[in-house]
Amino acid sequence: EPPAAMPAFRQVGEKQLPQEVVFMAWSPKRDLIALANRAGEVLLHRLANFQRVWSLPPNENTGKEVTALAWRPDGKILAFGLTDTKRIILCDVEKPESLHSFSVDSSITYMHWMEVTEESSVLTSFYNAEDESNLLLPKLPALPKNYAFCIFSEEKSDEIMKLLGDVRLNALVLGGSSGFIEIYAYGMFKIATVTGVAGSCRGLCLSGDLKSLSVITEIRDSSDSEAEITYFQLDTSLLSSYLPEVTRMARKFTHISTLLQYIKLSLTCMCEAWEEILMQMDSRLTKFVQEKNTTTSVQDEFMQLLLWGKASLELQALLMNQLTVKGLKKLGQSIESSYSSIQKLVISHLQSGSEALLYHLSELKGMALWKQKYESLGLDASGIEEAITAVGSFILKANELLQVIDSSMKNFKAFFRWLYVAMLRMSEDHVLPELNKMTQKDITFVADFLTEHFNEVIILICQYLKDEDDDLVSPPNTEGNQWFNFLKNSTHLKESPLLFPYYPEKSLHFVKRQMEGVIDQCLQKPADVIGKSVHQAVCMSLYKTAQSEDSTPQLFKLPFLWNDKTSNIHYVLFTILENSISKICILRRHTDTSRSVSNGILAVEFGNFLNSINESSDSRCYSCLDAHFYDDETVTVVLKESMEQEGKERVLAQLPLSSVYTDEDQDRELIWDSTKRLDEQSGEIPTRTVFLENQWRVLENMKAQYVSVNGIRKVSCVLSSNLRHVRVFEMDVEDDGEEEEEETTQIA
């Protein structure tokens, strides 16, 4: 036994925080704890001295009210849900930056991120195989420098890999108000929309073998101030029986959604380059046009200059004083560089992104055609075929934009070159002989530009990049195009699935939106099909809870769910009030819904282990305030002395399950009456009195109320009832010493 002076757990940090904490979650892999506070901030703290690593302040776009937090099982990404904007943000653990976000249809009240533990030879070979797309597709070009914040920029190419994470399937389960439950593979792509659960979600846990989903909900009648806490166990065996297929399909989906994001950002870059051109034109040319106040238009005056080689005095003054030779040269160069950057974005980014999209969709179609494997998951080949066609139409539209840019570049260049020479002559500067040569073709270009495009050239490209549904103002002229005429007159080719439909009237944005819509629709179907296959196996009403007067966030309140991956058992921890003492109850269910577990429900009460001065013979003197699973064998609890005395002590303790589940309990099984709530039959629940030996510690000078633990890292964080005072503990201090000693002896 440890000496009396040595408390069981070592305190490694304590802090009074400026804001009330509404959620806390330990990283599964490192000594880091994530907190969310009332102000809407998400904070990351280190175990040592509870030092802050970073904070992410609330913002208008993402939202200000954090209602759920979850770590990806590898600890590299933190997800949080915002109720005011109904958004889910995936954030990098290294720095407070959003890597990915998406909207949901309900305010999220709980999140659980799990990793699949099932093993099979098919899965192992899939995990170890090189992703073929990396071998077959060229690497996506990085976006320009000014997109440093996004995951596709030069500096962050590794972040896409971080976002996709390990190939082993992990799933983010979201629960919200009015029975909303969705499962996202890799935290990014929805693979199931679960229906048939009533109430607002208070807890979720998907088993490591994907066979069952445990849900705790709070069902509230509008008239009744009390809410009923209910436990549902849902059978999700479709996911477990098709695990290799679900993994492959989800992996493809994640690739496709990242590519759609890449294309969207590339288009944004193009629009910005185009706005740059407009600003240049606006500041120099348009101003110059507006200042002209005679009856003749600028176009006419330029035309006169082209035909007779002589400018009116007014035009001459405007050109020489307003625009100047130097200004014109600068304008020409900047417009040309903006044009070429748009061209580059279309060729390198839009086209390579779309080709990669075609590749993944075609692979997905191949999967959909393997009906015995993928049909029951809702993959639909005809829907994917439509998505492929939509991507083809987008590629055609991008090529059309290239041609438009090409022709307007020619006209622009010819016009600038001619005007430059004309202005050099006006200022009686020496004109280089190579600039002086102007062929008839050049003159035609300039004349074309002045008659047709002087105002239109801006509209031409602008209309492609506008994010509106309007048709193009001046669609490309297809008259006399032999291919078009051939298609028009050929009845068979018109309907051919081999030819991508072409929308001459529509803008690039419109075709992109149409493509996103079709892809979304075709990828939405599996989520509906898998969701419909999920059915309720068990529904138990646990207890009623009074409308809480205090404003404690729901996030902390019991019940707590845990999944023991090795023995495939779901545990539910909750408390039931009996004679003003909160007894902790443990409910056990097997993940295979057809199997039952012995000792389905047990209650635990704590014997007197604090040698208080007024030693009482009554052993039942502790109420349980909070309880969480520390690991598969241990539950961490916060207890409060329930005697009527001053200065009630709060205690942090470890409750080993071995002391709860002993062989002598076999005959004390609760005969469950499903017509009644559990708290109405609490007298029937077999109760076990446990005397803690040395795994406890009194929390002096702290009204401890809540605890968050991580048995992998052997740490815990206790939070006071005012939600501002935290203490952090290392839980297994002595054991570590022994382990180290053993290791050194082995080495020796």
Automatic annotation (TrEMBL):
<keyword id="KW-0131">Cell cycle</keyword>
<dbReference type="Pfam" id="PF12894">
    <property type="entry name" value="ANAPC4_WD40"/>
</dbReference>
<keyword id="KW-0539">Nucleus</keyword>
<keyword id="KW-0832">Ubl conjugation</keyword>
<feature type="domain" description="Anaphase-promoting complex subunit 4 long">
    <location>
        <begin position="231"/>
        <end position="429"/>
    </location>
</feature>
<dbReference type="Pfam" id="PF12896">
    <property type="entry name" value="ANAPC4"/>
</dbReference>
<keyword id="KW-0833">Ubl conjugation pathway</keyword>
<comment type="pathway">
    <text>Protein modification; protein ubiquitination.</text>
</comment>
<dbReference type="InterPro" id="IPR024977">
    <property type="entry name" value="Apc4-like_WD40_dom"/>
</dbReference>
<protein>
    <recommendedName>
        <fullName>Anaphase-promoting complex subunit 4</fullName>
    </recommendedName>
</protein>
<dbReference type="GO" id="GO:0070979">
    <property type="term" value="P:protein K11-linked ubiquitination"/>
</dbReference>
<dbReference type="InterPro" id="IPR015943">
    <property type="entry name" value="WD40/YVTN_repeat-like_dom_sf"/>
</dbReference>
<dbReference type="InterPro" id="IPR024789">
    <property type="entry name" value="APC4"/>
</dbReference>
<feature type="domain" description="Anaphase-promoting complex subunit 4-like WD40">
    <location>
        <begin position="24"/>
        <end position="115"/>
    </location>
</feature>
<keyword id="KW-0132">Cell division</keyword>
<feature type="domain" description="Anaphase-promoting complex subunit 4 C-terminal half WD40">
    <location>
        <begin position="561"/>
        <end position="730"/>
    </location>
</feature>
<comment type="function">
    <text>Component of the anaphase promoting complex/cyclosome (APC/C), a cell cycle-regulated E3 ubiquitin ligase that controls progression through mitosis and the G1 phase of the cell cycle. The APC/C complex acts by mediating ubiquitination and subsequent degradation of target proteins: it mainly mediates the formation of 'Lys-11'-linked polyubiquitin chains and, to a lower extent, the formation of 'Lys-48'- and 'Lys-63'-linked polyubiquitin chains. The APC/C complex catalyzes assembly of branched 'Lys-11'-/'Lys-48'-linked branched ubiquitin chains on target proteins.</text>
</comment>
<dbReference type="InterPro" id="IPR024790">
    <property type="entry name" value="APC4_long_dom"/>
</dbReference>
<keyword id="KW-0498">Mitosis</keyword>
<keyword id="KW-0597">Phosphoprotein</keyword>
<keyword id="KW-1017">Isopeptide bond</keyword>
<dbReference type="Pfam" id="PF23405">
    <property type="entry name" value="WD40_APC4_C-half"/>
</dbReference>
<dbReference type="GO" id="GO:0005680">
    <property type="term" value="C:anaphase-promoting complex"/>
</dbReference>
<comment type="similarity">
    <text>Belongs to the APC4 family.</text>
</comment>
<dbReference type="GO" id="GO:0031145">
    <property type="term" value="P:anaphase-promoting complex-dependent catabolic process"/>
</dbReference>
<dbReference type="InterPro" id="IPR056358">
    <property type="entry name" value="APC4_C"/>
</dbReference>
<dbReference type="GO" id="GO:0051301">
    <property type="term" value="P:cell division"/>
</dbReference>
<dbReference type="GO" id="GO:0034399">
    <property type="term" value="C:nuclear periphery"/>
</dbReference>
<dbReference type="GO" id="GO:0030071">
    <property type="term" value="P:regulation of mitotic metaphase/anaphase transition"/>
</dbReference>
<dbReference type="InterPro" id="IPR017169">
    <property type="entry name" value="APC4_metazoa"/>
</dbReference>
